[in-house]
Give the backbone structure.
Amino acid sequence: MGKPKARVNPEKCLGCGGCVAICPKDAILLLTNGYASVDEEKCISCYLCVRYCPIGAIEGE
Amino acid sequence: METMEYDVAIVGAGPAGCVTALYAAKEGLKVAILEKDKEVGIPVLCGEGISKKVDQLGIIERGKWIENEVIGARIFSPNGTIVKLSSEKAGGETGYVIDREVFDKELARLAIKEGAELFLRCEATGLIRRDGEIVGVEAALSGERIGIEAKVIVGADGVESRVGKWAGINTTLKSKDIVSCFEYTLSGIECNKDYCDFFVGKTLAPGGYIWVFPKSEDVANIGIGILASYSKPGLAKELLDRFIEKHKEYKKGKPIRILTGAAPVSEPVESVKENILLVGDAARHTDPLTGGGIMHALIGGRIAGETIAKSLNEGDLGILQEYEEGWKREFGKKLKRNYMMKEIASGFDDKTFDMLADSVKDINFEEFSTLGLVKALVTKHPSLLMKLKPLIGIR
């Protein structure tokens, strides 16, 4: 149980990396193919990245 | 795992990384630049405005990367009051509107010309440690694991920097210290080619601003940055679309490029730890007030490259500390002052911006001084003085 983990929509993400910089758990990586990806093991569902995203490409809440 | 040996391994081929490489290679060092993407300069993550002071640095010559030259900046307050600044006074972010793809590739060319080696599709994945010391970078080169052993490692890996974290430097940005950006290159618009325009206001762009940087009469980089602490999912795009919708000269345009971006607007982090250096956005050298980072990336990169060369040529890693002293001398005070200004200005409401614009709109900015600003405020809007009090006395 618990809150859902943050999920990046690779179809929307433009790879700016802001979510990587804001993540307090270092749970997000910018992949070489140009979009971000969340490590579910590390994600604490704080949703800072969800709120940060300029185009709403990360879901969670 | 294949292992290669270098003097310096630089993670990231943006302006800061390439300039560090250029100056380290110039002094005879063997330099590797690791770039995770398949092409230097792409994706662009930038408003593409830079000060003409770049010419005086002597790092990069004028060239095709300059798309337009403006005479100044116009700041529009929420009620439409315009404050005009000559480009010398506009925070160093205007003068040239540039093509970052071409600009970054030119810097990479210069670094390569001095002997630096560039690896594309090469993603740094961690540091190599031996007997408690950092001896290199682990990477995936087109998916193949490789090791790049180096005496000094430079994190030039941008806002999303991980090199610092691996070395134990806390580079995580708080919401109040990072800006969420969205931008279009709009074609088929009408704009004034002579000015870079900035639109401020808490409603329009909370904690940030909207910019219109003209590339020609009918093309501009139009974008928004909002402070992450005021952000909601997709808000930056929503606010920019609303702005464009309201301006008929922009509304008729069509995007030829869409970009997202992130700018650190924090205080700088520890930039040297053992044999690790951070440069550019990774070191949080971006101007916290404007979000502009290119000039500091170039200046800091050169100091880093020269310091690394001095350190390795003299065989004393202790010399690396001179890098931190060097960039602080060049722009440390400015970062400190503008961080304070950002902390204050990000709380301004629309009325405060209007009063501020009204106070300063007639100041001749060629003779701008803190005292002049204070005088104008006392005369026109004394209530603003309290808000700006923390800044007075800082130069």
